[in-house]
Q: What sequence folds into this?
């Protein structure tokens, strides 16, 4: 399913659940924050959790919190992230990594807009807008049984695919300018300009790490460049990734 850019901004203003799909580094978290900022919840909290980095138990406790005495070591009541997101947006990153038990609990929260803290039966109502992201094919996962089909349908009310950078070469240079300015700003140095030869090198990259890789290359370049201009020799690309054509001798000033 493909939606135009204007359709994507229409959905930002709604409460609809959005599923962002794309390779690592394509900007899923940036898109989730932008959707939140464009919504009428912008003044509310934006709470994120990465489902791939925590163990199942820790993730359960982080998401739902627990009541004092719910298990050994639970010495005090903990409000956790779903409660903290009340009135705002909850961003579930790498949702395809959720284990089946947590998938079931999450489905209940999304369907019933309420949940129970670990250790209590009293339900807590929450008003949360859900945005989920994954680098996996969640539809395929739901077909092969590794992801609940009902949860997949709940999450993919409005699916948005973020294409890899190599499939949108027209975005490379505009993004490079923004990322270079950001890197220079962080390094507290005047913003560098691109030399005449630098765009060819940037456009020749494979960018398997997508925008994140582009940002890293430009940050390194901003550290290395000592004049006002960024030259091809400052662009240290990952040798396993880019397919940069060799530059004619002397073109980059080396
Ligand atoms: N539109 C954009 N403009 C400027 N920078 C961007 C844009 N999109 C992404 N970036 C930058 O690219 C990097 C990766 O973005 P982000 O973390 O959103 O990607 P992701 O798809 O969520 O990655 P992962 O799946 O690995 O978590 C970040 O440094 C982010 O600031």
A:
């Amino acid at each position: 399913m493909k939606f135009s850019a204007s359709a994507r901004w229409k959905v930002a203003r709604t409460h609809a659940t959005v599923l962002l799909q794309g390779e690592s580094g394509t900007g899923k978290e940036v898109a989730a924050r932008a959707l939140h900022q464009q919504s009428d919840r912008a003044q509310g909290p934006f709470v994120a959790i990465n489902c791939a980095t925590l163990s199942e138990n820790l993730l359960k406790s982080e998401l739902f919190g627990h009541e004092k005495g719910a298990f050994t070591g639970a010495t005090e009541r903990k409000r956790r992230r779903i409660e903290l997101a009340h009135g705002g947006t909850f961003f579930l990153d790498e949702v395809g990594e959720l284990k089946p038990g947590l998938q079931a609990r999450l489905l209940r929260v999304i369907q019933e807009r309420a949940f129970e803290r670990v250790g209590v039966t009293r339900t807590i109502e929450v008003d949360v807008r859900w945005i989920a992201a994954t680098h996996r094919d969640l539809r395929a996962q739901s077909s092969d049984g590794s992801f609940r089909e009902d949860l997949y349908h709940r999450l993919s009310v409005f699916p948005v695919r973020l294409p890899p950078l190599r499939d949108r070469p027209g975005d490379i240079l505009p993004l490079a300018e923004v990322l270079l300015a950001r890197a220079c700003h962080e390094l507290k140095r005047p913003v560098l300009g691109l030399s005449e030869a630098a765009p060819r090198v940037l456009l020749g990259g494979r960018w398997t790490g997508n925008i994140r890789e582009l940002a890293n290359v430009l940050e390194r370049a901003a550290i290395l460049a000592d004049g006002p201009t960024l030259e091809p020799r400052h662009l240290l690309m990952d040798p396993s990734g880019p397919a940069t054509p060799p530059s004619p001798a002397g073109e980059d000033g080396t």
About this structure: The radius of gyration is 22 Å. Residues 242-254 have pLDDT under 50 and may be disordered. Residues 22, 24-30, 93, 135, 175, 178-179, 211-212, 215 surround adenosine-5'-triphosphate (CB under 6 Å).
